Amino acid sequence: MNFQILPNQFDKISEHRWKIALGVISGVIFLIVFSYFTYRQPLTFEETNNLINKSKNLKRIDSLCENLPKPEDFRLVSKVIGGNSRGVSISHYYQSETEYEKIKTSYLGWFTQNGWKLEYQNSLDFNKDNLIIHINEAYRKEAKYVTYCAEEQ
User: Fold this and answer.
1) DSSP per residue over 73-103, as a string?
2) Could you report the per-residue pLDDT of 110-119, keeping only the tens digit for each?
3) Is the pTM of this model over 0.85?
4) Per-residue CA distances from 41 to 37, 82, 130, 144 (Å)
């Protein structure tokens, strides 16, 4: 038997493990640096409103959300700007003690009376022309409901 092969094999295995370890460590460092530079703090209420006021499209969509009828106890707690290649959107988050079934009943009536089409049965997802409105429970600590308003191009 030739025992001289074993030390060379161990060197190759050891070298291979070091390359794998360096690759993993490099990947982890890359992810940490990438996450640090891409993470953004949410905009403040004032910053969001400043962005809205600078855009004709955002103003129109924000106005759509703001002018929807709301239960008396709806209190606006935040706004989030969104969108994609098809259009812009704004979500208004509200705190309220009103039960969802009561909200659902009143919104179903209002939207259908005002020419909006219900997208899905058992939901509050409506569209009219190129406008979209979704009203849902928010599942956030600071807000109970969210009104999502969008315009598709």
Assistant:
1) T-EEEEEEEEEETTEEEEEEEEE--S-HHHH
2) 999 999 999 9
3) no
4) 11, 15, 31, 22
